[in-house]
């Protein structure tokens, strides 16, 4: 059978049939000469129709959500005078589910400007619409909180460069230029500055969240207590995309649990965590010493609990060596600090239970 004698339904299936399932598409075609209105199999799947139901404009519009039927999405009306059609609307499928559909259509004309045929493409965009709604709701909640309390939020690139800081200038009086890099630490009380810097840099290096508290010099000259949390954002493949952080003024809390806050502040691994990390990597003390440049005796004292107050430089060297080998230190609220091996470093990592030290 030649292409010009094939039924439109068969042509649509041959041309688009292999593409539709993967792309989530549905296609319709209207022939003006014969008034034939043809749906592809992909479009039937979008509407949850079987292959035996007779197709019509009335059937199509019966699926459109009642509140969306006046938005100009009627195909029959479009065919009477419009050249291009583009809109989004909801449909209620035969199984009762509600889906958002993106619809684009165009009429094609001959040399005499007489319409020959029209083609429309529909795509299920429910996931995108719901994701945008969730984002808008989250942003609205943040705006509501920021209007009722002293707080600020930030977004940082994967390498830690802050690209958006909402509320920071209003709280501290610092400009974006002044707060760039680690310039924001200038507003942190000098007694809290080094601890805050270490928590921030460790979070970036280990790609894990952190929570800490510090005193912040506000634009009115008053030093106030804030609790801040920084969270990594990953894509579907586990790659770090960006960081999102939020900080709240807690100065009005007459009593707060210092033990809780001290548990949230992650300033480095304890001896128990170093020992657990070595076990995950199947490293001896000699291996860790060679990788980090820290002496064997120092590591032994640390793991035995005799040197949990080790110097900052020693802890930095150990954390760097372990992180480069795939170890992650992370926290779960006030349940302590945990250690795990990244999945890309070992096929067994996904089945390993994270070790933790709740004393941190």
The total beta strand count reads 13
Along the chain, the helix and strand elements come as: HHEEHHHEEEHEEHHHEEEHHHHHEEE
Taking pLDDT < 50 over at least 5 consecutive residues as the criterion, the unreliable ranges are 1-7, 254-268, 331-336, 346-360
Q: Specify the biggest β-sheet.
A: 5 strands, antiparallel
Portion in beta strands = 25-35%
The CATH C-level class name of the largest domain = Alpha Beta
Instruction: Please bin the fraction of helical residues.
Output: 25-40%
CATH topology of the largest domain: Beta-Lactamase
End-to-end distance:
76 Å
Q: Strands of the biggest beta sheet: in what spatial order?
A: 2-1-5-4-3
Average pLDDT figure: 75
Radius of gyration from CA coordinates: 30 Å
List the helices and strands and how they pair.
Elements: H1 8-16, H2 20-23, E1 25-31, E2 36-39, H3 41-47, H4 57-62, H5 75-79, E3 84-92, E4 98-109, E5 115-124, H6 126-148, E6 151-157, E7 162-166, H7 168-172, H8 176-179, H9 190-206, E8 210-217, E9 223-234, E10 240-249, H10 258-264, H11 271-281, H12 285-292, H13 296-303, H14 312-324, E11 327-331, E12 337-341, E13 355-357
Antiparallel strand pairs: 1-2, 1-5, 3-4, 4-5, 6-7, 6-10, 8-9, 9-10, 11-12, 12-13
Helix pairs in contact: 11-13, 12-14
Quickly list its features:
14 helices, 360 residues, 434 Repressor (Amino-terminal Domain), Beta-Lactamase, alpha+beta, elongated, single chain, 5-stranded antiparallel β-sheet, disordered C terminus, 3 domains
């Amino acid at each position: 059978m030649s292409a010009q004698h094939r039924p439109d339904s068969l042509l649509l299936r041959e041309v688009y049939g292999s593409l539709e399932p993967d792309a989530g598409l549905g296609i319709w075609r209207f022939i003006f000469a014969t008034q034939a209105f043809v749906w592809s199999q992909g479009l039937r799947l979008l509407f949850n129709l079987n292959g035996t139901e007779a197709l019509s404009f009335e059937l199509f519009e019966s699926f459109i959500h009642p509140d969306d039927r006046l938005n100009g999405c009627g195909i029959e009306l479009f065919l009477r005078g419009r050249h291009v059609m583009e809109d989004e609307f909801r449909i209620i499928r035969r199984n009762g589910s509600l889906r958002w559909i993106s619809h684009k259509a165009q009429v094609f004309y001959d040399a005499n400007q007489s319409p020959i045929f029209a083609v429309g493409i529909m795509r299920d965009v429910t996931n995108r619409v719901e994701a945008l709604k969730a984002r808008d709701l989250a942003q609205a909640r943040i705006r509501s909180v920021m209007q009722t309390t002293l707080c600020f939020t930030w977004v940082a690139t994967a390498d830690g460069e802050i690209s958006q800081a909402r509320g920071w200038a209003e709280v501290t009086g610092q400009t974006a230029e002044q707060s760039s890099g680690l310039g924001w630490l200038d507003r942190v009380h000098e007694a809290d500055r080094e601890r805050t810097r270490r928590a921030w840099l460790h979070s970036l290096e280990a790609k894990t969240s952190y929570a800490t508290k510090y005193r912040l010099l506000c634009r009115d000259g008053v030093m106030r207590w804030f609790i801040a949390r920084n969270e990594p954002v990953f894509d579907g493949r586990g790659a770090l995309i960006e960081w999102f952080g939020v900080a709240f003024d807690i100065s009005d809390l007459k009593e707060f649990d210092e033990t809780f806050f001290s548990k949230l502040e992650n300033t480095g691994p304890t001896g128990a965590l170093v020992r657990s990390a070595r076990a995950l990597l199947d490293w001896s003390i000699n291996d860790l010493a060679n990788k980090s440049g820290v002496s064997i005796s120092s590591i032994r004292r640390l793991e035995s609990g005799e040197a949990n107050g080790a110097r900052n430089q020693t802890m930095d060297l150990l954390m760097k060596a372990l992180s480069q080998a795939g170890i992650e230190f992370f926290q779960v609220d006030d349940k302590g600090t945990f250690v795990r091996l990244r999945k890309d470093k070992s096929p067994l990592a996904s089945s390993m239970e994270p070790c933790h030290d709740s004393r941190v």
